[in-house]
């Protein structure tokens, strides 16, 4: 499965990246820099150049994938409120593409898409304990928290 991973070179994202690759998934990892792109390629992923400010690029990355895991966040805590608003825009930009994927795949499922999406990712992506929060923000957004 092709997974678009934001924050792929970060503290959490780099660990998620390795878990996904070890499980046999193809990863399209968001990176801002040439150094990050090289690191992703060496790790076995494909680099997707972009930033959290470039919502069009984020939507293109999400549209190329079967699933999205969003681990990126701007950690300048002197601008926390603004960064939370930026994160809302990031999730919104990716949510529409992700919602199309989930709803298309879940169309004939007996469970509601939110329940099905959570169960599907827990079963098919990570083989370790995982807690997934699924929330609706102008579409469907998935945020994974690994223990």
Task: Describe the fold and architecture.
The chain is an alpha/beta fold and 147 residues long. The protein has one domain: NAD(P)-binding Rossmann-like Domain (Rossmann fold). 48% of the residues lie in helices and 22% in strands. The protein has five helices and six strands; from the N terminus they run βαβαβαβααββ. The strands form two sheets. A four-stranded parallel sheet has the order 3-2-1-4, sandwiched between helices. A hairpin with a 3-residue loop joins strand 5 and strand 6. Helix 3 packs parallel to helix 4. The chain is globular and about 35 Å long. The relative contact order is 0.17. The C terminus is likely disordered.
List the helices and strands and how they pair.
Layout: E1 2-6, H1 11-22, E2 26-31, H2 34-43, E3 46-49, H3 55-63, E4 67-70, H4 80-106, H5 113-124, E5 130-136, E6 140-146
Parallel strand pairs: 1-2, 1-4, 2-3
Antiparallel strand pairs: 5-6
Helix pairs in contact: 3-4
